[in-house]
Amino acid sequence: MGKLYATTVTSARPREREYKLTDGAGLYLLVKPNGRKLWRLNYAYLGKQRTLSFGAWPDVGLGDARERRDEARKLIAAGLDPSHEAKLATAREMLSEENSFKLVAEEWVAKQEREGMAEITLSKIRWLLDKAYPRIGNRPVAKITAQEVLVVLRSIEATGRYESARRMRSVLGRVFRYAIATTRAETDPARDLRGALTVPKAKHLAAITTDKGAGELMRAIEGYTGHAITLFGLRLSAHLFVRPGELRQAEWSEFDFDRSVWNISEQKMKMRRPHRVPLSTQATKLFEQLWELTGTGKYCFPSFRSPRRPMSENTINAALRALGFGQEEMTAHGFRAMAATLLNETGKFNPDAIERQLAHMETNAIRRAYTRGEYWDERVRMMQHWSDHLDQLRDGAKVLKPNFARG
User: Fold this and answer.
1) Going by C-beta distance under 8 Å and a sequence separation of 6 or more, which residues neighbour residue 342?
2) Which active-site residues does the annotation give?
3) Which residues span the domain enclosing 39?
4) CATH (domain of 120)
5) Edge to edge, what strands does the sheet with 261-264 contain?
6) Beta 275-278 vs 48-57: how paired, if at all?
7) Other residues' Cβ atoms within 10 Å of the Cβ of residue 395
8) Whole-angstrom Cα distance, residue 124 to residue 270?
9) What is the per-residue pLDDT across 16-55, written as a single tens digit (0 to 9) for each?
10) Closest CA to 187 of 177, 174, 197
11) What is the pTM of this model?
């Protein structure tokens, strides 16, 4: 079809007036008096003659010009105007440049915050994103490749934080999917990286899971000589075995002492479901004593620096270290494993009731449909039994003083 040759285009010289060198199917080279050579396409759309520019030679060669002509003619055959489509493509390109990954990510985080995501989860997400911003933060979200994302993930892996790298891939994927949903990207490059990262070994949080060890722990707690509020945090961690974040963020308004129950809203729960905790007589008494220290404020366990914030997430773990329990021996989260193990070993309680008290989500959908019951009456009995058992274990020997040589 073409009538031009590359040598013809190269050797074309300017004249006093501009002139055309036609190639066929509407494509021609416009040679200007100043020597510039511009590719043009004449075409008809809806009965009107139009002209489309393909750029200047030699930036756009003869072969490139022909490819663009063929693409334009395909659009015309499909009932589209190539000029209009070109303007849309330019607008999309400009919009893509404006929508950086950081801008979209911050918008997505703000959305999660509005929808009630727990602050501790938001903090972890922000921490991960801050690690990604130096490499891809200013890149247009629609142009980021899987290779670029992998570089970000490898930088985390290089520090030995395999679990953080795994979570980073998940968070980046959620940002990309949000960009797709808001028409600012078409693909999720993080999705293509499944299997590329080192799988972290399952790491069980340290916990004491024997009656003997639990008794030693409870006696050691009674020998704690640090801040009184921290002492109550240690005691109630054992009696209630809720997640550490749920305990330290407990608010006085959540308690119904007339009914001996602590009502935790879904916003504070890991599984985003409201949770109720039966209060044993021992737990109720501990809260009554704690009220004398913090009852005038919002939080049961306020920060030592500001009553407007809850206790630091490191406080209970630091207290356990002060009592001589190393991080490989016992953690704040370990109170949950301790209760779950010892309660299951008694054989007195339905395992589903124990799981419900731990606020665990049943992963099997069919089984979950059959275990929707609260097991409330059984959980009330169980929590009283657990507190009684802790007292018996604690009173089995004399109070232990902190052992700083331990671990």
Assistant:
1) 209, 210, 211, 214, 389
2) 243, 270, 333, 336, 360, 370
3) 6-80
4) 1.10.150.130
5) 255-256, 261-264, 275-278
6) unpaired
7) 13
8) 13
9) 999 999 988 889 999 999 999 999 989 888 878 888 888 8
10) 177
11) 0.53
